[in-house]
Amino acid sequence: MKSSSTNYFSCLFFLCLLLFVFVDSFEEQKNLKKSEFPDGFLFGTTTSAYQIEGAFLEDGKGLSNWDVFSHTKGRINNGDTGDIADDHYHRFQEDVELMHSIGLNSYRFSISWSRVLPRGRFGKVNFAGVTFYNELIDSLLLKGITPFVTLNHHDHPHELEEKYGGWLNPIMQEEFSYFAQICFSSFGDRVKYWTTINEPNMFAEMAYVRGVYPPARCSPPFGNCSAGNSDAEPLVAMHNMLLAHAKAAKLYREHFQPKHGGLIGIVVHSFMYKPLRNNDFDRDAANRAVLFTAAWVFDPLVHGDYPPEMRKYLLDALPRFTSDERKLIKDSIDFMGINHYGTLYAKDCIYSSCVCSNSSCIAGGDHPIHGYLITLAEKDGVSIGEPTGMSRFFVVPNGMEEIVDYMKKRYHNKPMFVTENGYASLNPTTAQADELQNDTKRVEFHKSYLASLARAIRKGADVRGYFIWSLMDNFEWTSGYELKFGLYYVDRATLDRVPKLSAKWYTDFLTNNSLNGEETGKLITFKYSSQANYLSDK
């Protein structure tokens, strides 16, 4: 009887504790204010060139790897392409007005390599492309919006793929350095934040492990490609991307940073990971999962070499840096960019058998390229968090605090920016446009993740900015236009930009207003006709 009573009160105490944590978290989100973040903190949105610009062969632009890939039958959902995308190339002035109406103080975008250098070093600079980005940057600055520029966001001139084999060839390091020099020379007097490559870890995974991004190279069990080696090629591609970054960073620091005073970094895609089971094997697997993804990039660029655990399992398949290369890459970033979308479970596959049984799990846990582990989102049939429109993105807000805390400790609290964080709407074919615009789940997502980020900052993390993916719905790679991350809904027939509830929430957050029963600030909607553009208040 005593034991039963003890169990009862223990359970009651645990339930009360859970209720307290839930209520405390709810109040924290409800009362979250911009003033809780440091002075000078950047609040922005993020896009990328191929995903929004369109104008894929206008004004001297050359074909990119994604231009060719998206036109290959069966590669993209619904046969979508980025030929037009959101037509940002022609409508950037209006899009800057959208940003200004929200109240952003920064905007992260990427430069199309094939728009500036259509043939890489084989050809000349396309000055029409340079002019476009100059006008975009000037328009942002005129509205008090700080440009935060990414040099390479998954796209490069297709000719470099054909001639060299893309990132599998070390010559891409020199190609990228030349492209970076053109950008630093053309825009560096006004751009103070540079990132070299967006998510090299994700690009290596998608292009060379799973083979679902160009150049679509892979091997079983990861995918069924016509060529490739999923156990080796991603390591080579990453090695070249890291050295390309380091050479561009050296160029910037020696020739541009002294007179322009800017900063240069790189961006990784990073989930947080939790052990699937309460044992040492899965705890080690959760740690390895971060090492084989985020630390794969950051360790060389901060410490000068790959994580020892990667060498332990990958052996000689993992390329080695020469002594000169280690000096080049070590401390080659001024800040870290973190793209964080969710948290997953990790299960060890060294001492356990691993079988993928749902869409959130990626095959190949018995291969060293993934660190002999699998990551998945379900435990005993229960999801780790609320699902979103992407099979591996689940809402686990405390993962933001945990991944930032991890980076703070491993990299001596080097300055950080959350360069992407966003919520994917579920398949829009099941909802009407007005329901997509009333995106309450996206609002709750950003409120909860910002609250988690604020906790990490209060604990001492040097985080200096937060960027929402994305400003507007756009071309979401192999998903085409089916997934919606934007604060603005984009009508695919008219390309009208219509603010969602999340855009109104972000505006009110940035002005310290509230959506809790108060009137929201005004946002503009851009509509287009064949005759002219016009604005309407929303």
From TrEMBL:
The keyword Hydrolase applies. GO terms for molecular function: beta-glucosidase activity. Residues 1-25 form the signal peptide. The keyword Hydrolase applies. It comes from the Eukaryota. One of its GO terms (biological process) is carbohydrate metabolic process. Belongs to the glycosyl hydrolase 1 family. This is Beta-glucosidase 18. The gene is LOC102582394.
